[in-house]
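USER: For my understanding, would you kindly supply a protein sequence with its structure tokens?

ASSISTANT:
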Amino acid sequence: MVKKRSITRFVVLAFVALIGILLTVCFFTIPYTTTNYNGFVNSIPLGLDYSSGVSIVYSAEKTNSTISSTSQAVDNTLSKIDKFLSYHGFSEYEINKQGDTKIEIQILEDEYSSTMLGLLESGQKIFFTIEEASDSLTPESYLDSSDISFAEVSYNQNSSVYGINVTLTNLGKSKLDNLKKQADYIDSDTVYVYLDEINSSNAYGEISVSKLDKTMFISSSSASNTTSDYSNAYQTASNIFVGTFDVTLEQESMNTISAKLGDNAWLYTLIAFLVFAIAIMIFMWVKYGDLGLLANFALIFFIVLQFFFMQALPFIRLDLGGALAMFLSLILFTVCQIIICERVGKEYAIGNRIHVSCKNGFKKSFWRIFDLHIITLVASIILLLIGKYSISYFGGVIFIASLVSFFTLYVLFRFFVNTYLPLNSTKPKKLKLYREANVKEIKEEVEIIPEDKASALTSEEGGQL
């Protein structure tokens, strides 16, 4: 009865594994719908190494008179463009300087947005005065775009309006102190904000002197809590930040570019991954017999689960770094399986019976494997949080692999071994287990049990882990 149950479990598990493999690699149109199912491996977002992209070239013209050359102004602007693209949610991009007066931006084709990238050409200067502009008065500006390090859309809960948070540079903070002194000198409690030029038609809003700070909230005089006002504030914040650039940008060309590693690079990577996995499976089977086959069964579940989470979680986008992490995660999982199998072999070599050896193998390997996974997990979280692009994707894949690996080892692999033992608890050679001829088998302590349970225990001689 127990052996039949084990066989039934393996049949069901094999069916589940087959379904998992098909869901991972197959793609098809779902019957009676127009929806395509692409499989886990084809649903993982790809980076510029594996996916086509768009290359946009901008010509730059210097606007900051304090900078000696356009080349230097372009250098100063590169980091601000990087900040702009990151803020607007582009997951992967490259910014390159071409010559002295051009900037190339490469982004993923599926993230290309002409509207968003058009904002790079629509910068607006911002000015702060302590007197209101009129037809007869153009007041002095005490703060302007050169003193702004960042601008982003924000929501003020007290006034229930959308507006802009502007953050000042270090020089801007010192100018702010001067502005406050001048406002106090003329007994003014209001600072006026203008966009593009200081005149009455370009007034954006006002801010109280008491609310001036290194990061301050500015709202339009006509703002109200509506969706359209969010859109306006979002675009205005972008325009203000672009207005801090030391150059103005004008799009010169836009071209589609192929994946850096070639059009079929992702397919070749998957084939290499499959060959590597098969090589591991052959090694495990030759080295550990049936125990190796069980390890291979667990490896299949590990790969399926890893690909599932890689396409399901939003912080994963595969490039060369993520692909490298896939191979390393496979090595991590295999090393842990070898640790368990070797421990099982040592337990049998000192005289333990097969089921006791398996139980002790998992138990005595636990802390070693746990420590290895914790160290890997902590390192992956650090890379995920502080890294960028390839480093971040590398950390993300390792993060997923660490969690899936530990679950597969100590839940699925142990369950597979536990299910197998009733089928073979007396033939160590099938598991590639050996001991010296002079080593006596360790007898287990006999437990007195009721007669009605004796027959069931006898039939289940393999025991449970």
